[in-house]
Protein 1
Amino acid sequence: PLQAVMAQGVYTPDPDKKVLAQTKAARFDKRDGTNTTSFCVSIGGKVVDVKTKKKFPGDPQVDQIIRDAIKKWRFKPFIVGGKLVKTCTERTFNIKFSK
């Protein structure tokens, strides 16, 4: 589950608000939305296999910004039964652009 994965987080900043503010969704549409992105944590603690599961409506640039942010995340490796394991989950982001 997401809580267990995020509890192992060493570096997990949110997507950059300044970069999100430059998107079409923020500047013109002013429409809120959600994005769900799946990712895995390798046995070394790096994020791999980042994929958008539910796209932000009307602006693929928002999805890209979120994927780029997740790729920078770092975690403590997961150990199950004394062995390092790759762990996968997904996270939903609620993006607000309306004033």
Protein 2
Amino acid sequence: MAEKKKNNKYVKIITRIIGVLSVIISIIFIGMMFYSNIIPNKFLYPAMIFILIFTILCTILIFKNKAKIVLSVILLITSSLCLLGSNYFYQTIHFMDVINNQTEETDLYYVVVLKQSKYKNIDDIENQEMGMMESQDDNFNKALERLHVSTKEKNYQDPLQLANDLLNQKIEVIFVKNIFKDLYDDEVKNFKENTKILYEVSVKTTKENISKKVDMTKEPFSLYISGIDVYGDMMTKSQSDVNIIMTVNPNTHEILLTSIPRDYYVQLHGTTGRKDKLTHAAYYGINMSVTTLEDLLNTKINHYFRVNFDAVIKVVDAIGGIDVYSDKAFRSTTMSSIYINEGWNHLNGKEALAFSRERKSYATGDRHRGENQQNVIKAMVNKVTSSPALLTNYNEIMNILTGSFQTDIETKEMSDLIKFQLDKMPSWNIKTYNLNGTDSENLTYSLGSLVRYVMEPDMKTVEQGSKYINGMLEGKTFKELGL
């Protein structure tokens, strides 16, 4: 009898502890719901009132010894759900804070030598002659100081001559920005195979905020989507392989994806003389890409999204793959192990990336690649909005995007967009448009005397694209624009 009373006493204490903890957990959950600002008020306040009243009522009944074991089990289940929900809200808040708080960009600079060079580390080039471009920015001078070695500078005006002199052993060491190293690897025969990076220096700079804020739940807006060709640090300036302007009308629930070829021959914003490839604009920072496209299309771009290859692979895998239609069969030229069938394909992350990067298998090259990129984006949107993939893999997706994604949209603006989607649950009508051009070769702003493949813009498609984008920003519907 005494043992039974003792057990009842323990049960009483434990159930009451569960009740008190459940009230505390429910208050934390309610606080996270409120602080995240992503739940529409029509759901938020009823949920807050119900959860609080329910947990308090159950706890009061437990203290009165009414069905305390049954109620304790119920509270354990609801508390577990509240903890899970709190984690979702925390991940969302953390994600939004991180991706729009990356106010810096990184320039990379390399000391490059031949593979068979006698120089094995940075100290070996002390007092040696080192080739470099004559006209450089302040960051280059900062990078030069961070080498912590003294060298004899040999200045070049032509970046191509600098690369060739290294290959021809007329100079043993060069110091170049990543823009030149990457272009040499792509365009100068045998450069990548015969050289190596002896030392790397990074210099960080603060980005100017050029966003143009609007209430994105009530007013049309444009976003620049930049897909950069790196797998690592998102702050590193790198070529933009994907260049898409997403124009959104939240009132008509219409989205237009306008694709601009990476090799479009354009005047970089603020420059004169030679034009350059659009993809090279990203070497000078995301702001250069945005303002150059604003100049080209005579429009305004409110915000940007910047994503790297890692994110495409990991997010597509996290949502269980995507279904994409291909109008021809081909073996990927960027990942030779991947084969795409004609017709519908269920693609994993690497396959989706290979599909969106392919251009050499198509007669129209980069033009068709832009269409594939649009199809991948649409497939990802459709998968996330029509299946539980986002919810079931939420934490994984948030962690992936946190390190592989950047935007200048502020946290409150993003939370307002999420709240808008949850409140209205609109079905989005997505259409695409592609700028076109003529294959050509020309000198570029970035590479001096090296003649390279470029695409001369078809100004009729540029003007039409401008008409569509600006028309949507004015509030016109697809039907009114003839889309």
